[in-house]
Amino acid sequence: MITACAPDLVLLQEAPRFFRWRKKLARLASGSGLVVLSGGATAAGPALLCSLRATVERTEDVLLPLTPGLHRRGFATAVVRFGGARLGVLSCHLSLQKDERYEQGGMLLDRLAGMGVEHAVAGGDLNDSPDGRTFRRLAGSLTDCRAAAPWGGEHTSTPADPRKRIDALFVTEGVEVLGCGVPHDQPGVTRGRPEGGHGPPPVLAALRVPTA
């Protein structure tokens, strides 16, 4: 399914993070013709994969403050170059608890602002829909790729019968969105979930990043 989409960057939300997680993540990347960029257990789940076209400038995994009784969350981040285009990348999986999720949305925006890049893409499982407070907080500062250039399917939750859009990609000003949505026409993707998988369907975006 990843191979069929031929991506330069993959933002994962529930990457292997327990026993032998590094080997499992490396196997996933290799099987898709990609390499591991960052994340996994060191980011509490989110991870980044990239193609060999990417020149990696730096990576950093960020663990967010832990709320007792709730799941640990984190960001997988990197700065990469594709030719003359320089791009910050952030993968996230935000909280199920609305107040914690809203705070994490603010941390995401702060993190992007502190990466020292003009152009960036951030995305993942927000556990929030476009009319939700956290989604609106992100969309108020960033461009919601699906809203800017809808393409393919829209809904990603629940996996068995998607009726909500809770997974999203956002870009900073200056990044052109050519299209964004669930790639139902790609091999390995069904209306409900990736074939053979248990998670929600993927979101694919085509972006044009300005060169320096």
From TrEMBL:
Listed name of the protein: Endonuclease/exonuclease/phosphatase family protein
Source superkingdom: Bacteria
Origin organism lineage: Bacteria, Bacillati, Actinomycetota, Actinomycetes, Kitasatosporales
GO molecular function: endonuclease activity
Pfam families tied to this protein: Exo_endo_phos
Span of domain Endonuclease/exonuclease/phosphatase: 2-187
Key words, A-Z: Endonuclease, Hydrolase, Nuclease
Keyword Glycoprotein: no
Region described as Disordered: spans on this chain: 181-202
Organism: Streptomyces prasinosporus
